[in-house]
């Protein structure tokens, strides 16, 4: 698993743009707190600029991956199925002629970038584990896992250290495997989000954690991005990803439960039927052998 660094260590510029253009200090800072009674918005929303974080929270006792929206007058949590992150052409930057960024594309190529350090012209997307109930119930931290990307191009999410070292790539859509980010509780982090081609992207993410009571909980949700001015945000809201997120809103189970005797944990019925058939066949073979020996004895005595 990769580490997720606290925002206090991420006072940096996005390396795909001049540092001066993105040098303004974060509007939220690393010490943001989230009130336990913040409302959950139920309306559809297009988030085009301002500060937002994806993160887990509890909704009526159920673990759920949502987005914490700070773009309005009052902060609110939003359902990801009813939210689109709009990435306008103001996010267009040029891939530099630097081997360190060859993973993004060819030098000179235009890509859309939501930067690690806030640019007030575009959405500032990060993640947090600061829901009060999450901090109270989670044992140490949360794993955010990229499980799939459905879009016209590639997605790269990476951190850039303040010393302008190599990019720490967290999520790379060119890789087929699941990709984990470990996030300590009470963490607030931002990263660079790079989209190589305009269009609608569905980014499937799972939030998984072990709780202090020994149970585990997880939920999978889909982030929707409308990349480029020509991309219709309404279509992004209405469209369905080809690889949908888990239908179950959340699961919580202890390790002990997974070895119990409930109906869902026993052997498949097909295996049971096969075992029964083999047992019946064995009985028939025994009967045939016994009858054959009896017939042989009768023939000898006659």
Automatic annotation (TrEMBL):
InterPro entries: Surface-anchored_actinobac (IPR022435). Keywords: Membrane, Signal, Transmembrane, Transmembrane helix. Residues 1-23 form the signal peptide. The keyword Membrane applies. Residues 236-253 have a biased composition (Low complexity). It comes from the Bacteria. Residues 236-265 are annotated as: Disordered. This is Putative ABC transporter-associated repeat protein. It comes from Lentzea xinjiangensis.
């Amino acid at each position: 698993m990769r580490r997720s660094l606290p925002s206090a260590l991420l006072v940096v510029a996005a390396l795909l743009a001049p540092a001066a253009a993105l040098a303004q200090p974060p509007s939220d800072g690393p010490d943001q707190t989230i009130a336990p009674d913040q409302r959950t918005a139920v309306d559809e929303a297009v988030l085009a600029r301002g500060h937002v974080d994806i993160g887990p929270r509890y909704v009526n006792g159920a673990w759920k991956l949502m987005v914490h929206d700070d773009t309005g007058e009052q902060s609110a949590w939003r359902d990801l199925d009813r939210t689109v992150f709009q990435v306008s052409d103001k996010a267009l930057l040029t891939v530099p002629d630097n081997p360190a960024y060859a993973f993004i594309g060819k030098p000179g190529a235009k890509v859309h970038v939501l930067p690690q350090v806030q640019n007030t012209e575009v959405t500032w997307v990060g993640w947090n584990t600061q829901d009060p109930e999450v901090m109270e119930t989670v044992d140490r931290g949360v794993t955010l896992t990229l499980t799939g990307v459905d879009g016209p191009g590639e997605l790269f999410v990476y951190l850039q250290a303040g010393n302008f070292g190599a990019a720490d790539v967290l999520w790379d859509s060119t890789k087929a495997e699941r990709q984990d980010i470990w996030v300590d509780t009470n963490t607030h982090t931002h990263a660079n989000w790079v989209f190589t081609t305009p269009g609608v992207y569905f980014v499937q993410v799972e939030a998984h954690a072990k709780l202090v009571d020994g149970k585990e909980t997880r939920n999978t949700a889909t982030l929707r991005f409308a990349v480029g001015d020509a991309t219709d945000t309404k279509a992004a809201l209405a469209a369905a990803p080809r690889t949908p997120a888990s239908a179950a809103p959340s699961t919580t189970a202890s390790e002990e439960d997974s070895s119990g005797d409930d109906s869902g944990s026993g052997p498949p019925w097909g295996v049971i039927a096969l075992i029964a058939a083999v047992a019946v066949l064995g009985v028939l073979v025994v009967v045939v052998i016994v009858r054959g020996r009896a017939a042989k004895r009768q023939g000898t005595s006659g």
